[in-house]
Amino acid sequence: MSQKIFNTKTRKKEVFQPIEEGAVGMYVCGITAYDVCHVGHARAAVVFDVIFRHFRARGYRVTYVKNFTDIDDKIIDRANREGVTITDITDRYIRLHDEDMAALNVLAPTITPKATEHMADMITLIRTLEEKGIAYAVDGDVFFAVGNYPAYGGLSGRNLDEMMAGARVDVNDKKRNPLDFVLWKKSKEGEPSWESPWGAGRPGWHIECSAMSRRYLGDTFDIHGGGEDLVFPHHENEIAQSQAATGKPPVHYWIHNGFVKINAEKMSKSLGNIFPIREIIRQYHPEVLRLFMIQSHYRSPVDYSDTALRETRTALIRCYTALRQMKDLRAQSGGAGDAAGAAAGGYAKRLNDLAEKFDAALDDDFNTAQALGFVFEAARLINTVTTAEKKMPAAAKLAVCNAAAARFAHFGAVLGVFQSDPDEFFRADRSLEAAKRGLDIPQIESLIRDRDKARAEKDWSRADDIRRELAAMNILLKDAAGETFWSIE
C-alpha cells in the first residue's frame, strides 16, 4: 500500500512520492530553549517520532532534522533575570529536553542544529532576498516585503486583503507594510549580537528554519512538520522566504499535529494549566503519556486530563498483561512450539492479518488511533489463547505466543511503546501508583508473603482475610504459575 499524507498546503490526502527514491528528508520545528518541555511539546515530539519510525520500518532512509532555537527574546529575558549567559540557559534546557525525550522513548533525530551555529547561512539567505527586492533594510533592521511576494498566504489559506483589513495598528514605524516581518533585528544595548552587512544584530525567528532546513535538506525537501499553531505565521513565512530566494517550493508535504487542551481548555500560562513532562512522569509511567499522545489521530486535538491518563494506563496494563502471559508461557515451555497446531487454530493467521492492518493504518496518513485498535485486538487474542483455550496443546499455545512476540516487537518498534520487560513495567507502574495513593509497598508485599505462607499451610481462612485486606487497599491479586502478581486497581 502506498503511503498517504494529508498535506496542509493542499488540504487533502496525497500519495507520498519522495524526491529521492527510497529516501525521506524531514524537518520539524523544535523548541525554543528557555523552559522545560510540557505536554504540547510531548505531542509534537511523539507524533513525528512515530512518523520517523514508520518510514524507517517501511525501508526508507530518513534524514530527520529537528532544530533548537537558542537565541530569542524569551531566552535573553530569562538569562537577564537569572544573571547568567544565554548559553547557560540554552544548554540547561536543551539538556532537560533531551532527558524528557529519552524518557518518552523519542529517538534522537538525525541532525539537531542550533540557530546560533548557522548565522552565516541566515545572513546569506537574507542578502539574497534583499538583492531580489523582496527584503529591505531600515536602520539596522531587515524586513521581508510581503507585498512583493504574491503567493503569501498559500499555506494558511489567508487572503492578503483580509489580513490587511484585520491587521492591528503596527507600532513599528520602520515597516512599509504592517504584514512585513523581521528577518534581522538590530541589537539593543547589552543583548547578544552578531556582525552582519546591516550592523550588529540577530536573526528573526522565521529565517532560522529556512536557513537550517536548506543547509541540511536542500532547496526542496519532502516533509516539514510542526504543531498546528505554527501554520501561521511561522510556516507561512518560511515558505515565503525560501521560495522567494530560490524560486522553488521548499517543501512537498506539510504535516501539522493538533493542539493539546487541558480539561477542554486551551493551554495557557495565565491559566496555570501548563503541565511539564517531567512532572507527569513522576506520577505515570512514561509509556502512559506516550500512548496517550497517539491514541488520537495526529491531526485531531487531544484533551489532557488525569482521567484520560488513567484510562490510557488501563489500556497499557492490558497490553503488558498479555505480554507477561506470553513471557510466562514461553519460559515454562522451554521448547519450540507446534506451528501447524497454531496455524490450524487460526490464531497465527489472525495475528498476521492484524499486523498487516496495523501497517496499512499507518500508511493511511499515520493513523495511530486505528493502528492501536489492531494492537489491542492482538492483546485480547493472546489473552484468549493463554487463559481461555483450555484444550489447546501447550506446544500450539507456545507457537501462537512466538508469533505474537514478533508482532508485538514490530508494534512496539514503530509506536515506541512496549519497550520494557513486563515485570519491570509492572514494578515501575506499581511504584508510581502507590506513591500517588500514599500506599506502603513494603507493607503490601509483606501481606502477600503472609498470604503465600497461609496458602502453603492450607490456612484458607487466613489467606482470604489477607486478600480482603489488600482488596480494601485497591490491590488486585492474581495467582499464576506458582507466583502471586499484584496490581493497583
Any overview of this molecule?
The chain is of the alpha/beta class and 489 residues long. The chain folds into 3 domains: 4-280, HUPs (Rossmann fold, 3-Layer(aba) Sandwich), CATH 3.40.50; 306-421; 439-488. It contains 17 helices and 15 strands. It has helices at residues 39-57, 73-82, 86-103, 119-131, 160-166, 205-217, 231-246, 277-280, 286-294, 306-333, 339-345, 347-363, 368-388, 394-415, 422-437, 441-456, 460-472, and strands at residues 4-7, 12-15, 23-28, 61-66, 135-138, 141-144, 181-186, 201-203, 221-227, 251-257, 260-262, 265-266, 302-304, 475-480, 483-488. The strands form 5 sheets. It has a 4-stranded parallel sheet, with helices on both faces. The chain has a 4-stranded antiparallel sheet with strand order 5-6-7-8. A 3-stranded mixed sheet has the order 12-11-13. A hairpin with a 2-residue loop joins strand 11 and strand 12. Helix 13 (368-388) runs antiparallel to helix 14. The longest helix has 28 residues, at 306-333. It is elongated. The two termini are 41 Å apart.
